């Protein structure tokens, strides 16, 4: 998928990275996602999406903090880029706009 | 938290990840899966964590994460490395000229032998492969029952071809082919030629290289196409197209024009002919299209997109047509046989287009090729090790600076490849310039290396290249690359000279050499025996001529009898020494097959058959001509008869008395054993052959006279006169060719194994120079020194001789049996000669090397540099 279209999982992960601020790496995203939305996604899928988002320019990344559990290996930490932030904003605006046009449920019982 | 330390992720899964993962991504991925693992471990326990870990690893196996080689870099390295290998290989070749030359020459000769053998065998099995449309051409065959047995026949009733042409749109071309031998008259000279009568579409179907004239020439029934050599024979240097020849067809001369000249047929051609004629010439009162009694080979070419299954099913209709018209020759079915399988099915299809190839010569040639290749490869192995001893330091250096064993092996094989490539090119050159012309002369074949049209020959070259490179190079490469650098530089490493491997190779070479020597000698011996063999009759001062008819017979005979030089003439139906008929006789209730000679009554006397018992024919007695026969000694032995015989013998339902027994004589050449022979007298008229007995020493002169006379009296036949004593010349010529092949093989085998021995001994001696130096100082004689070297070789010679002797006498004995009916077998003489000849060659080869030892000065060899 080329262009700036964003899939549903991509959107969730983009948001999660934004929430986690400077602590967003594979496992953290996975845990945050499952805590907040209850979705369990395979770690390889998270990696794939993170890579894709970085290619699209919504995320930046650098290698960072090694911990004991990782056997001293560094993690790739992602941060939301400016265009990532605006993509999230656009998406929310679009959703709100669409949502606001929904007729209220209460008028609907005659149908 | 403690449990985290004690358990760790599954090792194999982790290794798998490390194996496939791109190193640039490995750190983050591995970190994440490990972190997840420990998290799951504390949350859900070890089992789940392990399983999930495996699953993660498997899920990470994505295109993006997989390790890829950086192609650019490697290519660069490989080219540079290969270039270096070739350069070093080339330098080594030039530096060690003598052993390189031995190797290349040996391999080239062997490859040339293989090429000749290959071409010969290919010619038997890939018949017709030069035709462009070969995959679309089929022969139409039929099955019919004959004497209660169902067989497949290669011919088809002539009118059916027309039905095929008209009723089946998927058939592109059809041609009937009729083979014949005809007499062609050109400028008042007669020639006998193989011809094919074909339909004009024949030239569209089969690919022939037309040199002059138009390939469409056959559209005009009065035009013919001849091969180049026939055109040369007829018209010499004159431009042949448009010239006229007269062809005798059904006894009637027809004037025809040369329409085109095509290239001579090669040995892989499907057909064998010298002239192509139009089928219309065969039309008699009825045209060929309506003549159901005539059957021909019928070939068709199917359209590119035509379905052969549909066509074959459709052709079943022909069976009904045939069975309706010709009640006597009912077909059971019609089959299409692809052109390229005809030579493989030659046994199955009766009267098919390809002759069954006799296997014996193919085996012999293949065996010779394989023998030579084996010898050359073994030489190569031994000599390659010798050559490597001189570059042992190079190997050390390469290893020290980090060359891996695999790389060294590869390097040696690359160098080997150069040698093999040169050998193959040289081998092809030797084959084209020497071996193939020799072989063609000897075996009267037309083998050609056809580099343009023969895809299989490249396959042969490629497989030879790969095979020879690996077979000759693998052992030296692995052996040499196994040396340890420390040993090399400390001088401990020596190329072993007592290696069992080398000994086995050498022994095997001796075995092959012995076998070929035995075969050479046995063939010489047998040929000599046969040359001096008594023919069983007096073959001197006789001329035999063929006679076309009754009128000519009487005329020629009457003229000859008046000559003072002519001592007598006799007519015969058979030509003793060349063609004898066979017949069935009955003795009592038993039926026997015997050879039959029918002749005038004075024939046995003129031929000089030696009477053993009874009497010869008497022309004055009429009973001798009506019901008397002579038999040979073998006849009596085979059927256990004693002379005189009361019992009568029935030939052609007439009763015959045996009036005499003659000594055995050779009615056919020495490939055939002596069969029981019956000689029967006929009235003196209409004989096929006339035997003329002339005064001594007048044979040559009279032969010329007879030929002249014959040409005066006969004008529609070929003169086939021959001097009786020369009747086996053709056979002797063939046998001489075979003998020469065997001798040639033996010579090559001996030279190749001597070359190998030379290399090996020189290796041994070089390694022992210091040893010899010390011995020399202490007063050893050259004889004592040579004993060290010679002893081992003599042991190998003894082993080689005993194995080779046994194998050789069995194999060559069988070969002699298949070629000759009369031979002395592999006796003591060939064995003894072969064994001692090999010993002499070994000793000479070794002595050449020992001279080096003799002339060496211990001061030079013992000084440390």
The backbone outline of chain B, from C-alpha atoms, is globular
Multimeric status of the protein = heterodimer
Count of strand segments of chain B: 24
Structural class of chain A: mainly alpha
Characterize the biggest β-sheet of chain B.
Answer: 6 strands, mixed, barrel
Shape of chain A: elongated
Strand line-up across the major sheet of chain A: 1-2
Terminus-to-terminus distance of chain B: 71 Å
Counted beta strands of chain A: 2
- How far from one another are the termini of chain A? 40 Å
Strand order of the largest sheet of chain B: 4-5-10-7-9-8
Structural class of chain B: alpha+beta
Low-confidence stretches of chain B: none
The DSSP helix count of chain B reads 26
Unreliable spans of chain A are: none
Q: Which percent band covers the strand fraction of chain B?
A: 15-25%
State which percent range the strand residues of chain A make up.
Answer: 5-15%
Q: Tell me the count of domains of chain B.
A: 4
């Amino acid at each position: 998928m080329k262009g700036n279209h964003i899939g549903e999982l991509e959107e969730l992960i983009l948001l999660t990275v934004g929430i986690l601020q400077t602590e967003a790496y594979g496992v953290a995203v996975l845990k945050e996602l499952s805590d907040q939305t209850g979705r369990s996604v395979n770690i390889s899928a998270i990696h794939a999406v993170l890579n894709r988002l970085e290619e699209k320019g919504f995320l930046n990344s650098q290698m960072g903090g090694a911990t004991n559990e990782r056997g001293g290996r560094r993690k790739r930490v992602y941060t939301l880029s400016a265009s990532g932030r605006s993509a999230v904003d656009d998406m929310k605006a679009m959703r709100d706009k669409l949502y606001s046009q929904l007729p209220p449920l209460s008028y609907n019982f005659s149908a | 938290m403690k449990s985290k330390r004690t358990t760790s992720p599954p090792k194999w899964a982790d290794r798998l990840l490390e194996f496939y993962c791109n190193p640039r991504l490995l750190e983050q991925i591995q970190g994440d899966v490990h972190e997840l693992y420990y998290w799951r471990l504390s949350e859900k326990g070890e089992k789940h964590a392990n399983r999930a870990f495996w699953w993660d690893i498997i899920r990470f196996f994505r295109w993006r994460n997989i390790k890829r080689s950086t192609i650019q870099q490697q290519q660069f390295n490989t080219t540079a490395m290969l270039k270096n290998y070739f350069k070093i290989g080339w330098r080594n070749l030039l530096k060690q000229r003598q052993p390189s030359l031995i190797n290349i020459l040996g391999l080239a000769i062997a490859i040339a032998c293989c090429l000749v053998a290959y071409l010969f065998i290919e010619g038997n099995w890939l018949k017709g492969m030069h035709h462009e449309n070969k995959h679309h051409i089929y022969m139409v065959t039929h099955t019919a029952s004959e004497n209660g047995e169902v067989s497949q026949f290669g011919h088809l009733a002539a009118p059916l071809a027309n039905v095929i042409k008209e009723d089946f749109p998927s058939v592109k071309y059809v041609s009937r082919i009729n083979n014949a031998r005809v007499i062609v008259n050109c400028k008042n000279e007669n020639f006998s030629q193989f011809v094919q009568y074909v339909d004009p579409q024949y030239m569209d179907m089969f690919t022939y290289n037309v040199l002059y004239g138009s390939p469409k020439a056959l559209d005009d029934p009065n035009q013919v196409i001849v091969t180049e050599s026939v055109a040369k024979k007829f018209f010499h240097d004159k431009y042949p197209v448009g010239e006229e020849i007269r062809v005798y067809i059904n006894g009637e001369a027809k004037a025809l024009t040369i329409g085109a000249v095509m290239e001579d047929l090669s040995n892989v051609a499907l057909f064998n002919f010298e002239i192509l004629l139009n089928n219309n010439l065969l039309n008699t009162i009825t045209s060929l299209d309506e003549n159901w009694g005539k059957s021909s080979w019928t070939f068709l070419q199917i359209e590119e997109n035509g379905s052969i299954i549909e066509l074959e099913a459709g052709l079943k209709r022909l069976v009904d047509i045939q069975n309706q018209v010709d009640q006597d020759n009912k077909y059971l079915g019609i089959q299409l046989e692809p052109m390229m399988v005809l030579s493989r099915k030659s046994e199955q299809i009766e009267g098919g287009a390809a002759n069954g190839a006799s296997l014996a010569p193919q085996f012999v040639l293949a065996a010779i090729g394989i023998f030579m290749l084996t010898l050359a490869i073994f030489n190569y192995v031994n000599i390659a090790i010798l050559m490597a001893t001189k570059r042992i330091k190079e190997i050390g250096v390469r290893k020290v600076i980090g060359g891996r064993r695999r790389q060294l092996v590869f390097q040696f094989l690359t160098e080997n490849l150069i040698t093999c490539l040169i050998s193959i090119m040289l081998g092809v050159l030797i084959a084209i310039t020497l071996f193939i012309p020799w072989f063609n002369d000897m075996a009267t074949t037309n083998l050609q290396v056809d580099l343009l049209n023969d895809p299989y020959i490249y396959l042969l070259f490629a497989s030879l290249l790969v095979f020879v490179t690996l077979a000759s190079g693998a052992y030296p490469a692995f052996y040499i690359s196994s040396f340890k650098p420390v040993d090399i530089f400390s001088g401990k490493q020596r190329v072993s000279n007592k290696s069992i491997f080398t000994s086995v190779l050498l022994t095997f070479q001796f075995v092959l050499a012995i076998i070929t020597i035995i075969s050479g000698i046995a063939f010489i011996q047998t040929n000599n025996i046969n040359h001096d063999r008594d023919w069983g009759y007096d073959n001197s001062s006789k001329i035999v001529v063929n006679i076309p008819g009754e009128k000519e017979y009487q005329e020629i005979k009457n003229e000859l009898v008046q000559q003072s030089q002519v001592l007598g003439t006799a007519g015969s139906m058979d030509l003793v020494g060349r063609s004898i008929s066979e017949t069935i006789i009955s003795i009592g209730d038993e039926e026997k097959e015997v050879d039959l000679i029918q002749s005038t009554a004075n024939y046995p006397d003129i031929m000089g058959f030696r009477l053993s018992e009874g009497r010869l024919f008497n022309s004055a007695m009429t009973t001798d001509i009506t019901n008397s026969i002579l038999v040979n000694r073998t006849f009596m032995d085979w059927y256990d008869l004693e002379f005189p015989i009361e019992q009568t013998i029935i030939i052609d339902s007439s009763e015959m008395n045996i009036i005499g027994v003659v000594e055995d004589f050779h009615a056919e050449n020495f490939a055939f054993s002596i069969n029981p022979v019956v000689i029967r007298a006929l009235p003196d008229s209409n004989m096929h052959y006339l035997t003329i007995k002339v005064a001594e020493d007048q044979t040559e002169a009279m032969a010329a006279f007879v030929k002249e006379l014959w040409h005066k009296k006969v004008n529609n036949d070929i003169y086939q006169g021959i001097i009786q004593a020369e009747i086996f010349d053709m056979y002797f010529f063939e046998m001489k060719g075979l003998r020469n092949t065997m001798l040639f093989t033996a010579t090559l085998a001996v030279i190749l194994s001597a070359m190998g021995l030379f290399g090996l001994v020189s290796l041994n001696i070089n390694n022992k120079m210091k040893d010899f130096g010390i011995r020399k100082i202490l007063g050893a004689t050259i004889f004592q020194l040579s004993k060290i070297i010679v002893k081992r070789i003599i042991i190998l010679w003894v082993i080689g001789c005993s194995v080779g002797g046994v194998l050789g006498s069995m194999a060559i004995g069988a070969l002699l049996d298949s070629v000759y009916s009369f031979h002395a077998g592999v006796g003591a003489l060939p064995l003894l000669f072969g064994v001692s000849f090999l010993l002499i060659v070994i000793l000479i080869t070794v002595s050449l090397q020992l001279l080096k030892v003799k002339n060496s000065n211990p001061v030079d060899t013992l000084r440390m540099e």
